[in-house]
Amino acid sequence: VQLQAFGGGLVQAGTSLRLSCTASGSTFLINVMGWYRQVPGKQRDLVATITRGGSTNYADSMKGRFTISRDAAKNTMYLQMNSLKLEDTAVYYCTAVTFGSTSYWGQGTLVTVSS
């Protein structure tokens, strides 16, 4: 499974941004997909996950502002981020976990939120 993330960039606080993550390869093996983010010098933190069946889970600080979704036909996952805050600045990584519990990671996309 290969993952490629798109959509990062420089945005102003209070605005929105949508990230995409496209999976290729043995995508039929994927059970759960998700987004994590990492600030330099800190650990990688969960943002949100979505199962093949569409069940979602969010980190508390993202609830109500971020929405994760998945288009199975396109093998693509999205993260709609609204009301962005300065503290949302990070490298965002997409991940996929197979039914066999193997994890794969994309290359990361940088989101910078400015005041």
Helix content: under 10%
Shape by Cα distribution: globular
Count of individual beta strands? 11
Strand percentage lies at over 45%
The termini sit apart by 37 Å
- List the total number of helices: 0
Q: Topology as H/E string?
A: EEEEEEEEEEE
Structural category is: mainly beta
Rg: 13 Å
> What's the rounded overall pLDDT mean?
96
Unreliable spans are none
Largest sheet: 7 strands, mixed
What does this structure look like?
By secondary structure, the protein is an all-beta fold. 0% of the residues lie in helices and 58% in strands. The chain contains no helices and eleven strands. The protein has strands at 2-6, 9-12, 17-24, 30-38, 44-51, 56-58, 66-71, 76-81, 90-98, 103-105, 109-114. The strands form two sheets. Strands 2, 4, 5, 6, 9, 10 and 11 form a seven-stranded mixed β-sheet that branches. A hairpin with a 5-residue loop joins strand 4 and strand 5. It is globular and about 40 Å long. 29% of the residues are buried. The mean pLDDT is 96.
Relevant terms:
0% helix, seven-stranded mixed beta sheet, 115 residues, four-stranded antiparallel beta sheet, mainly beta
Short description:
With 115 residues, the protein is mainly β. Helix content is 0%, strand content 58%.
List the helices and strands and how they pair.
Elements: E1 2-6, E2 9-12, E3 17-24, E4 30-38, E5 44-51, E6 56-58, E7 66-71, E8 76-81, E9 90-98, E10 103-105, E11 109-114
Parallel strand pairs: 2-11
Antiparallel strand pairs: 1-3, 3-8, 4-5, 4-9, 5-6, 7-8, 9-10, 9-11
